[in-house]
Predict the structure of Lipoprotein signal peptidase.
Amino acid sequence: MKKILTEIKAKKIYFLISVLIFIADMVSKYFVDKFLQPIYIKKIIGDILVFAYTENYGVAFGFLNNLPETVKNIMPHLLKIIVAVAMVLIFFIMISINPKKQKLSMIGFTMILGGALGNLVDRIMHGYVTDFISMGFNETIRFPYHYNIADASITIGIAVIAIGVFFFKEDFEKKSETEKIKEAIKKAVEVKEEDD
């Protein structure tokens, strides 16, 4: 536990950024829920950027949104569990990453954590995720799905990790077999000393 707290303190800027992404997402959804629903569509930058209120019961970009009613009733609960587990995994990945060696991966996971938290809280509060951003060139040539700040953050985060891994050869530190044996012996000795 002490090691985890030390790592959180050392990487507090990344966790703070995750919190800021979460806040930006929740604030935007609050205003969309409050002011956009009755209007439904609001042009922000001509046809390029349009806000269009959508309730998303599936996952990012409306994927799995058009499911049969029986499955649709189970899906929100299942997604809550999946996202919560994924967030715990992302948290521990962030704890284990060395930001000096894996800067892009750390930034990517930071963005994913903030976005995942935003969508999870929205899903817990409403049973769905509020999507509202629609982009395109005109009424016919548009990105087929609406999304929100959390979705955008998750997508960009995945892209940043991919760039880090594939173009900058960032990789998680791999421990040699000797290091693993040394760690196992050290843990065994610590356990024995506690028993004594």
Q: What stands out?
A: The radius of gyration is 21 Å. DSSP finds six helices and three strands in the chain. The chain has a mean pLDDT of 86. The first helix runs from residue 2 to 10.
